[in-house]
Fold this protein.
Amino acid sequence: MDDLPPQVAILAAAGILAGLVILWRGFGGYRTAARITDISTSRIVSLAAGEVRVSGVVEPSEMLLTSTLQSVSCVYYRSKVKDTSGDSDTTIHDEERAIGFRIRDSTGDVRIFPRDARWDVPVRFDERASRNDGSPAGLRIRNGSPYQPAEPDREALIADLLTPDLPLDAGSPLYGADRSSRQYVEAWIEPGDTVTIVGRALPFGDLADPSEADIGGGGVLPADDPEVSMNIAEARAAGILQTDPALAWGNAAIPGFGIGSPVREPALDPEAHQPALATPDTASRIARTFDIPPGQLVIAAGPAMPLLVSHGEPAIAADRYRNRFAMGLLGAVLAIGSAIVLAFAVTSGALP
């Protein structure tokens, strides 16, 4: 047999590495598919504390997000922009955000606190732009804050209608000065989508931190951070843990205070702006939205029960992970074939 060139051995080694990575991801898909299928779907009205699987339609809670590339009102999005004009792709924007939401089935609804969740959301926008063609026709770059009220009041809607739209690319760094070749990719979950969730159901009062609702907002502590959990446990044991929200949080505990419509008078400096109290209808809506009884079950991530949020019904979500396992088997074939080629390269003297 003729000697093989050294390049073949290098490619074979790379093939082994790539095949093993694909195989490892495939086994991860197998484990996740098994986790989805091994737990039966619980009706929300009869949820019990512990690991559960629920499936239903997404509904907003207090707030919604506006996605970066499509300006879609959603509860989760993942956006990525790559510059493809060079020899290799360069990521110039990579953002992921989520916010707390509800899902509803035919029996009721449950609050989801998705911080530290694993998201399985197919790409829904994938377009390319070139220097000659300009921006993709479907690209709608967000202008302004990524956050919006789930139920904007009448004045906010009127102000939005009266505000002229900015040019699509006004001030946005996502376009680039030279309109270079770029790829725009975005995935999201919006109200009305069906999702499958596998995670931990627990009373709201046992949730370590209600800020676990969000990702991408600047938080750095994971859900159930050990040090925070230890401090809370010690404070509870010592009897110094403040259980009255009004005393623990002050004005922030007043429903509606954060959106400028408190249901009761806040304690403010006399020179501070005094917000108008919420009307009875607004107060009722705020109470339905923000007040969560301590004993009400919610779903969140936990150290032994990671939270999985998959787009679609359980069978569809499980099939996506089975497909990843099938790809993993192909990775095994690639690794084995590459190992055989590498063995030939070694025996033929391609490697020193």
Notes: The longest strand covers residues 50-60.
